[in-house]
Amino acid sequence: MRIARFTTGEEPQFGVVTGEVDEFGQPADDSVVVALAGDPLYVGIKLLEEQHRLADVRLLAPVLPRSKVVGIGRNYAAHAAEMDSDVPDEPLMFLKPNTSVVGPGDPIFYPRQTQELHFEGELALVIGRICRDVPPEQATDVIFGYTIGNDVTARDLQRSDVQFTRAKGFDSFCPLGPWIETDLDPHDFAEGRAVQTHLNGDLKQDGSTRDLIFDIPTLVAHVSSVMTLLPGDVILTGTPAGVGPMEVGDEVEVSIAGLGTLTNPVKAR
Questions:
Q1: 207 & 231 share domain
Q2: Which string of DSSP letters, residue by residue, matches 207-238?
Q3: pLDDT band at 58 (very low <50, low <70, confident <90, very high)
Q4: Full domain range(s) for residue 21
Q5: Is 132 found in the same domain as 237?
Q6: What is the pLDDT of residues 87-105, one digit of tens each?
């Protein structure tokens, strides 16, 4: 089930996107979104009679984390190598504020404080209930679903600050979308799903989730051993090799097989 958050020009709503999809999760032209009665994280899946053509609505970030976005660094060996860094012995965590979240089509704003703004396409998972100290074998019990993320990073600030907060925390530095897919589990990603990033149509990242160093159950267990996770919290699972700079006027597309494509333009702040 694909859970979207959308607007027709009025107040944002949640809905279920129906219709056939291609191999990358892109919906057919005749797809519709059926409205839901409230936030499904809190009231469950309650379909209304209201529906709209998907082409007639604007998709928003499918989740607005009430608490936090947890990023995982260097979770692909090739990416660690391109950053001239070692593979960590345990998941390397950092936080992005929930104010960094934007949705499909929203601009990524290029701050004046950086001269080196990078894209980092990656798989993101959404937590479905309050949890702490989750054993790896119970990770699926607390995952609501999966979406696509772009862990936008001011690379020069990351180097100069050492801490990641400013480099990864600006407004618009966490695009998410286009929806949350609930009918997948960690085994789907362990078997391998393509993760690709295109910049202005040119392929820049071409990885597979089978190459995650720390798999999804391990990440949920590790993060929840440190902090309580709340419904709507997001864990970014790490980016494959091929990260690189974006400039004002560029368009970045992150695609994951079965999840669709997240597209955002880059604009001056």
A1: yes
A2: EEGGGBSS-HHHHHHHHHTTS-B-TT-EEE--
A3: very high
A4: 2-59
A5: yes
A6: 999 999 999 999 999 999 9
